[in-house]
Amino acid sequence: MDINDKIQFMEKNLARQLDWIRAADSKIAPVIFITTSMLGATVAFLSKTPRLSGLSLLLAAVCIGALVYTLFCMVMVNFPRITRYDESALFFEGIKFAGFETFDKRAKEMTQDAYMQDLTRMCYNNAVIASSKFRYVKRAMLALFTAIIPWVILVYDVFRYYPVQELLGK
């Protein structure tokens, strides 16, 4: 493989890494929406319950704990910890920290070998970011699924005490 083929390969690899990062990011909004909805509903149910049983409190604790952990994981997906890489001519942080003058000089003096090296580092750094994001997405999804069954049982347990006939006017 000559240097141009290697560069083309690494550019495609970097594009795939960025697609994986976008895929993880696309899961943030729906998971946060579902989680906050369930959390809000849980608090609303509990605040309107005429009497709380031990079962209700246990289910609420499991459900709220799992939902809060889901939110924590989504924060970790949204704000990945990245390694600062000041010398990159590709990575936005490297460009920003170098300043325009230094970046301009690097860009004008860059060789194919230096570009290849920068692409390799970018691919690696983005693979680390994608891996971290997907690890937290998986944890969030597991926690959300863990919360669903106790949540459904909690809803049943809370509403079985409600005088539904009176609420319906019968």
**Number of separate structural domains:** 1
* Outline: rod-shaped
How would you name the oligomeric state of the polypeptide chains in this document? single chain
N/C terminus separation = 80 Å
Number of strands: 0
Residue share in helices? over 70%
Q: Describe the main β-sheet briefly.
A: none
The gyration radius over C-alpha positions equals 25 Å
Low-confidence stretches: none
Structural class by secondary-structure content: mainly alpha
Number of helices: 6
Q: What fraction of the residues are assigned to beta strands by DSSP?
A: under 5%
**Average pLDDT number:** 87
- State the order of secondary-structure elements, H for helix, E for strand: HHHHHH
Quick overview:
The chain is an all-alpha fold and 170 residues long. Helix content is 82%, strand content 0%.
Describe this structure in words.
This protein is mainly alpha-helical. The chain has 6 helices and no strands. It has helices spanning 3-25, 28-48, 54-78, 92-109, 112-159, 164-167.
